[in-house]
Amino acid sequence: FNFKNNKIFFSPNIQSNLTTFFNPIKFNYLNSNLKTFDNYFKIKSLKSNNFELKRFYCQPKSNQNSQEAFKENSNSQENESERSDEINQKKLKKKKNLKLQTKTENETENGNNENNGNSENSENSENSENSENSENSEKAESTTKKLTYRDHVTREILETEKSYVKCIRALVDTLVVPLKEKRADYPQMPPDVIRSIFGNIEDILRINETLLEGLENRVEHNWSESATIGDLLNKMVPFLKMYKDYTIQYDSAITILTEWEKQSAFANFIKKWEDEPKQLNSQLKIRAFLIQPIQRIPRYKLLVEDLLKNTADDHPDKNGLASALAVIKSVAETVNESIRKNENRQKILEIQNNFTHYNLFSSIQLVEPHREFLKQGRLFKICRKTRKERWFFLFNDILVYADEAPPGLMKRFIFRLSVPIDKIRIEDKPNITGSSKEINYAFEVRNPKKSFVVLAPTQEEKVEWMIAITKACESWQAKVQSLRNMSSLADAHEAPVWIPDSEAVACNGCGTPFSMFNRRHHCRKCGIVVCGDCSNRRMEIPGMGSARVCEKCFQANIQLTKSNGRKTKMN
Length: 571
Description:
By secondary structure, this protein is of the alpha+beta class. The chain has helices at 12-16, 64-109, 113-180, 191-198, 201-221, 230-236, 242-248, 250-261, 264-275, 286-290, 292-309, 318-353, 459-489, 551-570; strands at 2-4, 7-9, 25-26, 355-357, 373-382, 387-395, 398-404, 413-420, 425-429, 442-446, 452-455, 521-522, 529-530, 537-541, 545-549.
């Protein structure tokens, strides 16, 4: 048996042997010292439907005196039970007498109808008042519950903001500022490297310190049922867009940090800094500090959504929270989209780094500013003599397939073919069974460059590939058409819009990651970011004169010059 709040419960093994569910049985503890007895109880009498504990025994460990004391206590409990039975009988007699009195009173009151009606009305009015009071009390209880939960969410916003600001403040005070001030016991780093790793985290700290000051003043000192925090959030949310800039450069920051950690002196310093106490609840690694701003925006979204959900419609904070949440959601979407794009870029770069060309003197370029990775997988390509397994990579503008490299090569894939997606047409092929040329789960990839048949492992994968390629083709064709329409209206000598440095993780020409040694350069013709080796060409640009351009723009200009020369000769 288990004891809980002066109640005794049957153990699970006893419950399994009983056919009827029963309620916990109340009982009174004996005055004797139960610590000297084993917790072993026996049921003496059980009723058929209502299980009731009439008496229980405790077997002593080896103490005769305690056994006798227990018998005396059990006898006294029997006497008490007999007395309680007598008291219950007396109570029953009193109830019978009261019923008789009420009957006689009702008979005398039946003669007077008016008094009867008045009494009924008074009783009805009392009942209605009682029901109204009960409804009001229920409403009051529900509102207090909502207010209590609203207070809880508000307190959670404040407490999480405190810990967040404390974490960012520790990073800025103990690492960012000393590095900028070039203190003697800190590694000497160029200012652009510090800016590339830590971004605008000091600006973010100032914004959140202002928000925290307002929350502390409102929640801890001036809080009431009608108090608001939506106005505080609305003052801060326009500056949350600075989180987007931080998010965009985060992957590049981690790449540069990893490059610097290859230097043993810097790595030892960071290890020592991570182990130092910073008045935080737990010791965090430097990457855990750097990811805090990225994790904070989704946290704001969840907390404000919860607070808005538990704020009454007539509360003065309702509209302010709704408007703040709308801005926070838009910023969260922007942050998530930036994260998605950066992850996609890293995926394309990873694929490119695993590629080698079948011609060892050639290279494959997959990283492009507009390119997005969509899908990859193994398919069987039907060649002239046999079926060969190929790796297919689907991007938003091209379809690439490759061989898996043999063991011993540094790369994983050997490039075979790249087909523009807008030139592709997909055709289904029915299954062919019952012959030596059995074909299952096949479809054709038709294009002007090369058409071929591929086989998927299952019907589901076949359908997935056909849908993915068709959607990519339709989407890219629509995008190309819109660009052509725009280019027909645009000025031919219009200066390009430069891609921000924070969005360029690697060179758009060769794919080499940028670092403190591999610097960024913008092509003055198309605006992409390339390294020094990929931007060592110059050409005449209207309005700029001789300017630095990437290799692609330079070669395109040569081809254009040659074609224009042929036209002039023909004329």
